[in-house]
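Q: Could you fold this chain for me?
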Amino acid sequence: MKTINTINPSTMRSNAIKVLGLLAATAVFTSCDNDDDISAENEEEVITTVEYTLTSTTDATNVVVFTSVDADGEGPLAPVETVTGTLMASTVYDGSIKFLNELESPAEDITVEVAEEADEHEVFYIDSITDLTVAKVDTDANGNSLGLDTTFTTGAAGTGTLTIVLRHEPLKPNDGTLLNAGGETDVQVEFDLVVQ
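A: Sure. Below is the predicted structure, expressed as structure tokens.
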């Protein structure tokens, strides 16, 4: 007589559910690991120092430096802003900006990373003097504005403020305003502006 083995359908269903459960658990653990790696990669840089240097295109001795130093990074101390040199009326300046993390020793130059990831960054310059213009002269690989290098043109004498903002992952291209750019602010500083 021939013996026929039969498989109980409820046992098959139970085993299938166990296997599917193990596969699902593996997928969850794997995706958690990947998320952790991504967040570590995109961790925001600490920027303690912003230094914006303007050099007159007609008088190399006319140099103006705007410096903001936040000695404790994201700590409770407010940044200290200083301006050295004199901005002259009706003058064109070549501008360059640096971003540093001086909590590191030696200081880490974040400007290098911004330049390397130009498509993910943009520097914005907002001033409150009507006849002063700041034009970005450098671009990312797609031809969109970056703003590490600028042309800074003064008009009549006056006073106001200059705000500098570094944005991470802004919308590109944009209309040049923070409102339209989106993204996240890596650092924002404001200086008193005097044109003589």
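A (continued): Residues 49-195 form one domain.
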